[in-house]
Amino acid sequence: MVESKQQWKAWLYLAPAIVLLLIFTVWPIINTVRMAFLEDYSIAIASGGETSFRVSLGNFVKVAQYQDFLICLKNTVLLCVITVPVSTLLALLVAVALNAIKPLRRTLQTIFFLPYVTNSIAIGMVFAAMFNIVGSVGTRRPLIQTVGIINNVIQFFGGNYVNWINNGSSYWANMFVLIVYIVWNALPFKILILLGGLQSINKQYYEAAKVDSTPRWRVLWRITVPLLSPMIAYVVITGFIGGFKEYTSIVGIFGESLGPAHAPGRLNTMVGFIYEALEQHHQGRASAAALILFAIILVVTLINLQVSKKRVHY
Amino acid sequence: MKKLVSILLVLVLALALTPAMAEGPAYDGSEVTITFYNTMGTNLTPVLEKYIAVFEAMYPNIHVKYSSIGSYDDVRDQISTELSRVGIGTDANIAYCYPDHVALYNLYKAVRTLDEFIDSTAEVTRADGTTEIMGLTAEQKADFIEGYYNEGLQFGDGHMYTMPFSKSTEVLYYNKTFFEANGLEIPTTWDELEALCEKIVEIDPMSIPLGYDSEGNWFITMTEQLQSGYTSATEPHFLFNNETNQAFVKRFREWYQENYVTTATLYGAYTSGLFTSTGEIKSYMSIGSSAGASYQRPAKGADGQYPFEVGITTIPQADPENRKVISQGPSVCIFKKGNVQEEYASWLFVKFLTTDIDFQAEFSMASGYVPVIKSVNQNATYAEFVASADGGDHVTALSAKVCLEQEDAYYTSPAFNGSSTARDEVAGLITKCLTIGDDKDVDAEIQKAFEDAVAKCEYSL
Amino acid sequence: MSQQTIKVMQSRDLKRTTNKQTAGHAIGTVGIYIFLCIMALIVLFPFYWMVISSLKSLTEYRLSKPTFWPQTLLLSNYRDAFTTASLGRLFLNTAYVGIVSTLLSLVVTIITAFAFARLEFKGKNLLFAGLLATMMIPGELFTITNYLTVSSFGWINTFTALIVPFLVSVFYIYLLRQNFLQIPNELYLAAKVDGTSDWKYLWKVMVPLALPTLISITILKMMGAWNSYIWPRLVANDEAHRMVTNGLRNAFKDTSGEVNYPVQMAAVALVSAPLFMVFIFLRKYIMAGVSRSGIKG
Theoretical Cys-Cys bridge with B219: which of B245, B426, C46, C64, CB 3.0 to 4.6 Å? Predict the structure, then answer.
C-alpha cells in the first residue's frame, strides 16, 4: 500500500519533465531514427511530395563510405579523450585553490566569472591573435607579418616560432591548439560546478587535517576529491558526452574548411560530418551518423558509469 | 455587294484598331499582405521602407511587410525550415536568394517561375487610375544588365526563377601612387599580371604584389574565362577536373611559391589589410568585392591625407576580347501561394523594386552594391555620385563606376543541388594545390587533389 | 660519535622537518596564488579582447597585425550600439524570457532531481539511463521536428515557443541529482520519523542545502537565454519577441552588408553588463556555503 503510494507520488514528481521530454526530445529522436532507416531521406524532397523512401540500411552504408569517415572518428575520439581529463583536472585545481585562499579571494572569484559574459566572437578573435601567423607561410621566401603572441613569447625565450595552424603546420600542432581552445572553453563551467560542490563539503574535515598538519596535496587527494566525487563524476561524464560532439571549436579556429590551408578537412569530426550532411539536405545520412555517434557515446558512458559506481562516494 | 464590302472594311478596321488581346495573369486589386525576407541592416531598411510607401500608394490594397534575418544563409535556413511545414509552407512571399538557395527551395517545389509574369501583357490599374502592364516591357527587359538578368535562368530547365535585386562583383584594386611612381602598366591579362608581379617583387622584395580575397571565386572565374568547364545544372554536374584547370592551378602554385600572390586563407587575414598596410610587408594589388571598396582604402595618416591613392579596374582576363567577371549579390525569388493574387502582388512589388530607377539608385548608394539596370544614371543624384568617383574619399563611387563600365562581362554559374559544395571544394583545391611544396611531385598531387574534390562533390549528391 | 650526539642530531633533524613543513606551506600558498593568477589571466584575455575590440575602429579591427591597445579609443561605438539597435526592447525581451524560463526550469529540475535522488519507484535506473541517453544525440537534428511541433501548437512568434521547449534539461537534472545524493540519507529518514512530508522536506531541507548548485544552474540558464540564436531566430523573429543575439546580428551591418564587429562588441558589452552584476550578486550565495547546516559532505 505504502509502496504503491510512493510509486504514484514519484511519477507525479516526474510528470512535468516527462511530458515535456516526450514532446520536445523523445519525439524528435523517434523522427531521427525513422529518417536514419529511410534510404536517401531528405526533408526537402519529402516535403515536395515524394513519399516513397525505401526502408534500408543504405544511409549507414553511405556514412561508412565517406572518404574521411575514419578521420572524423579519430579526431572525435582523440579530442575527447585528451580534453576531458585535462580540463577536469585544471578546473579542480582552480576550484580548490580558490577555496583555499583568503586575501584576493573575492577578486579572483569575480574574474573567473567573467568568461560567462564574454561573447564567443571575441574568443575566436583572440585565438587568431594568439596562434595565427599572418604572411606568406611556406613559400620559397616566407614573408611574415606577425607570428602571434604565443610565438612572440617563444621567441622571447630564444626559441623558434612554431607553425600552429597555418599552411604547413603539423597535425599535432593543430591538435594542440584545438585542445587548448576546448579546455579553455570548458574551464569556466567546470570551475563553477566544482566550486559549488566544494561549498557542500563540511569544513570539519579540513580542520581535522589541519591539526594533523597533513600536506596539502594529500588533503586534496584523500579528502577533497572523494568528497567531491559526485560532482567530478558529473563533470567527467557530461564532459565525455559533450566532447564527442565537438565541432564548433574547430570552426572557431580553422573556419569552415576544418583544417589548415594545405589540408582542408583534416580536423573534421563526427558532428562536423552531421552538419555537412544537414547542409546538403541529407537528413537521412545525418541521422544515421547521429545514431552511430550515439552508440559510441553510449558505450563510453556505460563504462564511465561503471567506474564511477566504484569510485563515487555519496 | 457594296454593303458587304463596307461591312468587311469596318470589321478589318475594328480588328486593326483593337489592341492585341491582353494575355497572361494580372493582379485584380484584391486585398493582400505580402512578406519580404531579406538581410538588410538598419542602414538599408529606411530606404526599403520609403519605397514600400511609394508602392503602397500605387496599390493601396497590397500591404508589404518585411523581415530582416541575419545573413544570406540564415534566410535560407529560415525558409527551408518553414517549408518543411507540409501544406503551410513559408511565411515569405518574396525572399533574398542566391542561386543555390533556389535550387534547394525547388526540391520543396516551392518557387514560382516568373516567365508567365514577365510575358504577361494584361493591364493592372493603379490607385491614381493609370495603368501598367503586368509583365516587363521590351524596354524594361533590355534595361537589365544582361549577366545579372540571366542568373534567373541558370537552373537547367530554361525557366526564369529569380530577378536580380542588387549586385556586386570582383574588381582589381591597385596602389595608383605606387604604379605611377614606378611607371607600371595596369594589367589586363593574367600574362601581363605575371610579368608585373615579377617587376614589383624586384622593386620591393618585401611585397606580395597581389592579394586575392576569395579562392572560390578565383577558381570559378578562371574556368569561365578559359571556357574550360566548372559545373553543369544537368548531369554530369561536375566538370572541373580537366587538364586546363589543373594547368592554371599549377601556374598559380608557382606564383604563390614566388610570393607573387596570396589569398585570404593562405595569408591568414583579410587581404585588404595587406593592401592597405603601411608596414614593411604589403601588396600593391588586391582583388576583392566591389562592395568592399572602403576596406581597400588606407586609413588617413596624421596629416589627414591618404597614404596612397586607390585605383580600380576590371580583374585580369584570359581573353581581353571576351571578358568575364563574377556576378554576386542577392536576387529575389517569389514563393507559390494558395492565393494566386498574393503571387501576382509579389511580382508587382519585385518588378517595382528591380525596375524603379530611383529605388535602384538610392539603394545602391546606401549599400555599396551596384544597380541591376543601366538607366539608373538618369537619376540625377546617382549620376552625380558616379561623377564624383576618385581614389580617396569617393572610392565607393569609383568602384560603382568600374562595375557599370564592364556590364558586358558578368557571368553566373549553374545552380543545382550540390553547387554550393562544388564551390567549397574548388576553394579548398586552390589552397591545397598552391601550398604543395617543391619537394613533392606537384603534378601527381594536383591530380589527386582534383580527383578527391570531385569525389567529395559526387558524394554530396 | 657518541650516542648523545646522534640523539641531538636526530632531534635537530626533526625540528628541521617541521620547519620545512611550514616553509613548504608558505611556498605552497605562493604557488597557489601564482597558479590562480596565471589561470585568471588566461580566462581574462578574451574578455579583455572583447572590451578593446569594442573601442576600435572597423579599419583597425581589420588590420593584419592585431593591436593590443586601440590606436584611437572610439567611445562612439557605444553610442552607435545604443542608438542603432533598439537595445532597450531587445534587453527586456531577453530578460523576460531568461527570468521566466529560469524560474520554471528550476522548479521542474528540482522536483525531477528529487524524484531520482530520494524517491523509490520501479524502473528508476532505467529511466535515468534513458534520460542520459537523450543527451547523446546531437541536438541539431531536433530543430526541424521541434519547429514543426511548435508551429502546429500555434506558438510561432510567442514567448511560449522560446520558453517551453527548453524547460527540461537533463544536464541540470543530473547535476542537481548528484548534489541531492550528497545530502545524507539520515536527514531524510529523520524527517520521515518526524512526519515531515516529502514535499516539505524537499523545499525546507534539500533546496537550501543545494543552493550553490541551484545558483550555478540559474547562471547557466540565464546565459543560455542571452546566447541563444538559432532557435529564437526560427520561432520568434518579430519586433515584439526578438532576442538580443538576433537583434545584434542585424543591427550593425556596414554599407557592404558586413557586420561591424567593434560596434557589435560594444553592444554585447552593454547588454552583458547587467547580467554580470547579477552574477556578482549571486556569487555571494554560491560562496556562502552550506556547511553551517551541518551536513556530512
Answer: B426
